[in-house]
Every structure is written in structure tokens, then in C-alpha cells.
Design a protein that fits this description.
138 residues; mainly beta; 1 helix; 9% helix; globular
Amino acid sequence: MTRALLLREASTPEGTPGVLVVDGQAWNTLELPWLDNAPKRSCIPDGVYRCALVQSPRFGRVYSILNVPGRSAILIHAGNYAGQIPHHRTHVQGCVLLGERRGTLAGQRAVLVSKPAVRRFMAAMGGRPFALEIAWNQ
């Protein structure tokens, strides 16, 4: 089984940036801030998770991060913002956003060129399940 590494950087109210690496390819990531795994408000705990392709009613064919303690419907999908509610914008409720670049939109941390990044990730993974290791780079 393919193994992917998501290496997180320091978490702030504007989100938790990181880099996802699979077989020498890399994507920028953005997740919610770490708030003790609070459902729909926090990024998920570090650890190793199995990921499988699912059909999301909202996002289409995407990968789901499975068996997250106390959580469900954690996806890897397109979007720009992952800030702490209610003071920041967010496109997630615990999911992982992918982008080709990092930057800001409307003055808030964001990942950019997200839909092409997700397409590139989906092509690289080829529909195969994989193991995702999430770790902090601090």
C-alpha cells in the first residue's frame, strides 16, 4: 500500500498549513487549527490513517480519511480557507484542503490553485487506497 506523509506546521487561528508528500510529489495543505479534535472545529489528531476513494455528495470522487477517533466524513478536497470559526473564513469542517501554492485571499491564509491540485493528487493516487501519516514539524 502506498504511504503518504502530511507534515504539519504551526497551527494558528487562520489554519494549520502543511505539505503532503506521495512518491516524490508534493501538495500544499491547509486544515483547521488544532482545537483538541473538536468535531467540525479542529484538524484531526496526528497518526496513521487508511484513506479510500469515496463518492461525496458535495465534492464528487475524493479520498476519505478513515477511522479518525471521534470523527467522520473527513475528506481531502478542494477549497481555500480553513480558519477558526467565527472570526475567520473556512471551507472545511475537519477536512484537508490541497493547493498548488500558499498565499492569502482577502487578507487570510489560504491554499491557492486548489482544484488543479486535487485533480493532480487524484491522478497520482489512481483510485488506490493509501496510508496517510500525519505528523507535526515543530
